[in-house]
Write a structure and sequence with these properties.
alpha/beta, Transcription Regulator spoIIAA, 3 helices, 5 strands
Length: 111
Amino acid sequence: MNINLDVEVIDDGLSTIVELVGEIDAYTAPVLKESLLPLTEEAGANIIVDLEKVNYMDSTGLGVFISALKSSKEHESKLKLIHLQERVYRLFKITSLDSIITIDTTVRGGN
């Protein structure tokens, strides 16, 4: 099993930035969930997930972001996704999740 996702969490004082590099699928989603969900449980937290270097995501990844959104609403924190590549953004759009998750609409290129 090849786990091809790097997660880096950076606290800049105002926000917590989660930089992701690789692919989000059934194998890597638990790694993402383990890193992301605890951040959403802090009241007032501002979490920004940078997906610029994520070139593939399947429905398991969507599930993680739905869980994170639900947790952020329960704990009164904020979740925002930024720098989505076109193919990843398309997943949010076709599932209408782009209407409930805050996504920076500056879509990056990519295959």
